[in-house]
Design brief:
Elements: H1 2-11, E1 27-31, E2 34-41, E3 52-60, E4 69-77, E5 80-84, E6 88-90, E7 94-99, E8 105-114, E9 122-131, H2 138-174
Antiparallel strand pairs: 1-2, 2-3, 3-7, 4-5, 4-6, 4-8, 8-9
Length: 175
Amino acid sequence: MLLVVGLLTLAAGEQVFVFADPLKAASKQRIGNYDVEMTTEPKNPTAGASPTDIMIRIAGVNADDLVDVPIMMRLTKDGVELQRTNPIIVPYGHHTQEFTFAQAGRYVLYVDLNDYSYSGETLTFTFFINIAGSSDYLYIAAPLVAVVAVGIASMMIVMKGKKKKREQKAGRTEL
C-alpha cells in the first residue's frame, strides 16, 4: 500500500524546489520582485592588495535563484566612475566579479538589473564597500602592543616587589 502511494505521488509530478545557499554575511537589498546580495572575499578588502572577489546573488522575493538575469556593475569612489562591466547574463543567480582597489576609502558598487520580466525598467541596487589602507591596521595594532607592553612591565614590577619583600622577610627570620 505504501509503495502504491509513493508511486502515485511521483506520477502526479510533485515539484521539488531546491535553492542555492544565500551568501554569508552579505549586504542585502530588495527592490520590486528582486533580492540582491553582495559580499566580498576577502571579507575586509585592503587597498593595493591582491584582487578582491565581489560576489553577487540575485533571487526572487521567495528566495529562489533567478536564471539568466542581465546586469551591469559600476564601481565608483567619490562620485567618479572607476570601472564598468559590460552587460553580464547571470546564470543561476550567482556571479563573481574581480576588482582591484588602488586606494583606501569608501567605494560604491551599483548593480544595474534589467527588469525585462516585470517592469521593463533598469533597477539599480547600491552597495557600499569599505577598503582599508595598509596603515589602517596600525590604529588597532599600535595601541594593542602598547597595552601588552604596559601589562608586562607592570607584572614585572609587582613580581620584583614581592621578591624583595620575601627576601627582607627571610632576612629577619634568620636573626
